[in-house]
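User: tokens in, sequence out, please.
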């Protein structure tokens, strides 16, 4: 099978249902994540984005259950749903990286950043002689210019942006084919957010990684994702959320087919006046402060 981008998907999710205490939260979720691409899962707060992502990584909270299929490509492919925890633990990090919403909380405050990464590479069998270079390289790719200093720092000694970058490094230090990034920049100021999402996207393209970017912010999805899937209650009726619409980010913005997507577009401030280029996109084309003014936005391809 090939993904919408024409490449064999890294992850194929079909008919995913997630329930909490037997109540459906999301239902019938279908997703295909292509290598070297970013797919944003967008929806309102509480729509089930995180639970969908957690279901893929076997990280659902007690009382929650998932059914359906989530196949991770490989030789052989692996069905993630229902995978025994022992096997899932081996995959986490090596084949599937997960970066949490609250990275500062997910890093042990009494453990220096470098040890978090070293422990991960050691636990997954990276030979001792390669551990240091693997860790430093992962931090460098996350845009941390002084990786040695960051290694020795405790999480509370770093800024929010540095913590998120360190968390990305932890997520990809073992080179997973799939990386789930759950609201990784929602607590950051816009400039720091842009820096973190730039490295996330650049890494996905360079490493051929499939990234699932969980965000409530359509503007973020438009700027950094290739494709967007919108999670909402169909027809605005209460009940389990579904993917009401998915496709290239630019198409969703230009011609949203679902009323909820249209509402998101309006609320994001990106709504194009008939035929006009969105102001934000115009500004970026005119000269992105990051020097990306001539590069098409992620959402403008496809
Ligand atoms: N551990 C839990 N126990 C009970 N209900 C939960 C639990 N975690 C999430 N929920 C409920 O499941 C629904 C979906 O939650 P989820 O965290 O997936 O939403 P979300 O779209 O990621 O929201 P946000 O953008 O605010 O993080 C919400 O109604 C939430 O209250």
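Assistant: Sequence out:
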């Amino acid at each position: 099978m090939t993904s919408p981008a024409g490449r064999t998907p890294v992850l194929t999710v079909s008919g995913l249902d997630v329930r909490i205490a037997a109540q459906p939260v999301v239902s019938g979720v279908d997703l295909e994540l292509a290598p070297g691409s970013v797919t944003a899962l967008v929806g309102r707060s509480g729509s089930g984005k995180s639970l969908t992502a957690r279901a893929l990584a076997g990280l659902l909270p007690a009382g929650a259950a998932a059914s359906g299929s989530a196949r991770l490509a490989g030789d052989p492919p692996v069905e993630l749903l229902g995978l025994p925890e022992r096997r899932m633990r081996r995959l986490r990090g090596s084949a599937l990286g997960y970066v949490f919403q609250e990275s500062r909380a997910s890093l042990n405050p009494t453990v220096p950043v470098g040890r978090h990464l070293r422990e991960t590479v050691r636990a997954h069998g990276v030979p001792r002689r390669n551990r240091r270079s693997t860790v430093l390289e992962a931090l460098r790719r996350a845009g941390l210019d002084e990786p040695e200093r960051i290694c020795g720092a405790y999480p509370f000694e770093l800024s929010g942006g540095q913590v998120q970058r360190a968390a990305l490094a932890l997520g990809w230090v073992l080179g997973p084919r799939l990386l789930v990034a759950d609201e990784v920049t929602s607590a950051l100021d816009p400039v720091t957010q842009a820096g973190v999402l730039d490295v996330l996207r650049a890494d996905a393209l360079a490493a051929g990684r499939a990234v699932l970017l969980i965000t409530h912010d359509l503007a973020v999805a438009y700027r950094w994702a290739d494709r967007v899937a919108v999670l909402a209650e169909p027809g605005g009726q209460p009940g389990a959320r579904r993917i009401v619409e998915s496709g290239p980010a630019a198409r969703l913005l230009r011609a949203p087919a679902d009323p909820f997507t249209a509402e998101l577009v309006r609320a994001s401030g990106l709504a194009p006046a008939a035929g006009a280029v969105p102001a934000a996109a115009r500004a970026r084309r005119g000269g992105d402060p990051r020097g990306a003014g001539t590069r098409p936005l992620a959402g403008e391809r496809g």
